[in-house]
Amino acid sequence: MALPTRLTAISGLGFRSRAYAVHVYQKIATLTIGAVFVSPMGQKLRRRVARFSAPAPRPDVRTALVAHLFYLDLLPELLACRAMLPNGATLHLTVPTDRVEEAQRLVQDVSAVVMHPCDNRGRDIAPFVALLNTGAFDGYDAVLKLHTKRSPHLLDGEIRRKLLFMRLAGERNATWRTLAAFAQPDTGIVGWKACYREAPPYWMSNEPRVRAIAARMNAPEDAVRLGFFEGSMFWFRPAALARLRQLRLTAEDFEPEERQLDGTLHHALERAFTIAARSDGFTVRGLDGRVLT
Asked: How far apart are CA 289 and CA 284, in angstroms?
């Protein structure tokens, strides 16, 4: 089973290590402070506080949102994120083929939505790579990648998704300040630092496969290191993922869905996005614009 593999990896952080302490702290913080932060009361308070912040300048970047809509009832959360982007941002939705008809009814009155039917394979990663391969993102400077992640195997799964949505696109001023990083041509990927994993045990069982993918991308040695946004939600510049696109992966390359928690191609690619970006000289940054190692 995959669950013991994950527990073994977490214990491998070392009970006295800084990485393990951070992991435990984040779990506790998510289940307590995080739960309050994403609650209706917390959201109301944040909106009130936001009124007193100086307005951020409108970013001069072409933006879009791409999201994998597996759980249709979470569409309102995605639309709320899209509302925080500059006007006119297109919403690209990848949807399992057996749910497309219902999804189309849900968005029939929503403008600038492009529906992309896909197989239920490779979670959010396979449909995303398929769109990347078609050049669907080529007209944008910055694209926000989200998905309706529930992680039912985790106590904090729902809270983590809501926190990620809110941190990446939960308030207009904060979102526009994040987008300002893309005014710098070397910015490749921007995400929430609290989800950035670089401690070696976070390779889990994926290191050999990630290194094989890096070799296929002709990634330079100094770019092949662990450092990824757990949950695979982040802002990215399409050009920063050119090497991943060159692999021409298809849905058939991904394992059939069996509720795997580790060891699949989509888990390996989650750790390869930053390698692709760094291979072409792009930086990986936190939401504050600082470069992450």
From this structure: 9
Q: What is the pLDDT of residues 69-116, one digit of tens each?
A: 999 999 999 999 999 999 889 999 999 999 999 999 999 999 999 999
SS3 letters across the chain: CHHHHHHHHHHCCCCCCHHHHHHHHHHHHHHHHHHHHHCHHHHHHHHHHHCCCCCCCCCCCCEEEEEECCCHHHHHHHHHHHCCCCCCCEEEEEEEHHHHHHHHHHCCCCCCEEEEEECCECCCHHHHHHHHHHCCCCCCCEEEEEECCCCCCCCCHHHHHHHHHHHHHCCHHHHHHHHHHHHCCCEEEEECHHHEECCHHHHCCCHHHHHHHHHHCCCCHHHCCCCEECCCCEEECHHHHHHHHCCCCCHHHCCECCCCCCCCHHHHHHCCHHHHHHHCCCEEEECCCCECC
Task: For residues 232 and 135, give the distance between their C-alpha atoms in angstroms, rounded to a whole number.
Answer: 20
pLDDT at 89: 94
Residue 1 pLDDT > 50: no
pLDDT of residue 6: 46
pTM for the complete prediction?
Answer: 0.89
pLDDT bin (cut points 50, 70, 90) of residue 228 is very high
**CA distance to 46, 57, 69, 168, 226, per residue, from 289 (Å):** 22, 15, 28, 13, 20
Report the alpha-carbon distance of residue 157 to residue 124 in Å, rounded. Answer: 16
Tell me the C-alpha distance between 27 and 204, whole Å. Answer: 18
Could you give the maximum distance between any two Cα atoms of the chain, in Å? 54
Q: How confident is the model over 267-287, as pLDDT tens digits?
A: 999 999 999 999 999 999 999
Q: How far is CA 188 from CA 71, 90, 154, 167, 199, in A?
A: 29, 20, 30, 18, 21
